[in-house]
Amino acid sequence: MAGNSRLTVAVHALCWLALAQRHGHTGLTSDQIAASLDSNPAAVRRALGPLRDAGMVAAGLGPGGGWSLCTPATGITLAEVYAAVEPGPVFALHPHQPRQDCPVGYGIAPVLDDIYDRVGRAVAGELSRRTIADVLDTVLRRHPLPVPWAGVPAPRDS
C-alpha cells in the first residue's frame, strides 16, 4: 500500500523556502519550487494552498512576488504542517458500518478507534518536536550536496 506524500512535499517546499530566505530571497516562484521537487508548478500551488490557508506561507503577485514564509522556519512545527495538509485522523474506520450481527463487525470500531487515537497522539507528539528549521539544518548537515547545483538560490547581493 502506497503512503501519502502530501506531508513530505509540503515539508520539502517549506525547507526550500527557508533556505531561500536564509540567502536573502523574499520569495520563490512556483517554477523555482517545482524545480527542487522535480515536479510541476501546478502541483506546487496545490501543495502550498493548504499551507497558505493555515498562514504559514503567502503568495505574492507580480515582479518580486512568489511564495514566501509568513512565519520563521523555527516557528513552524511538522505537527502544524501535518494538520494543514492532512486534516482529520491518522487512520479512519470503515467507510460504512460493518455488520452488527457479526461478532467482529459489532465490536471492532470502538477498539480500533482507541488504538488509532493513541497512534494519532503519538504521531502529533513526535511531529511537534521538529520544526522546518530543524529539518533543513539536518538535511544540510547530514547530506550536503557534493557539487554546486545551479538551482540553489544564490545569496542576494546587499
Can you tag this structure with a few keywords?
elongated; Arc Repressor Mutant, subunit A; mainly alpha; 6 helices; 158 residues; two-stranded antiparallel sheet
Give a written overview of the molecule.
One of its GO terms (cellular component) is cytosol. Keywords: DNA-binding. This is DNA-binding transcriptional regulator, IscR family. It holds the Pfam family Rrf2. One of its GO terms (molecular function) is DNA-binding transcription factor activity. By secondary structure, this protein is mainly alpha-helical. The chain has a domain at 2-88 and 130-142: Arc Repressor Mutant, subunit A. 53% of the residues lie in helices and 5% in strands. A two-stranded antiparallel ribbon has the order 1-2. Strand 1 (57-60) and strand 2 (66-69) form a beta hairpin. Helix 1 (6-22) packs across helix 2 and helix 4 crosses helix 5 (103-128). It is elongated and about 65 Å long. The model has no long low-confidence stretch (mean pLDDT 89).
Gist of the model:
With 158 residues, the chain is mainly alpha-helical. It has 6 helices and 2 strands, in the order αααββααα.
What characteristic shape results from the CA principal axes?
elongated
The strand line-up of the biggest sheet is: 1-2
Secondary-structure-based class equals: mainly alpha
Task: Give the second-level CATH assignment, the architecture of one domain.
Answer: Orthogonal Bundle
Distance between the termini: 49 Å
Major sheet, described briefly? 2 strands, antiparallel
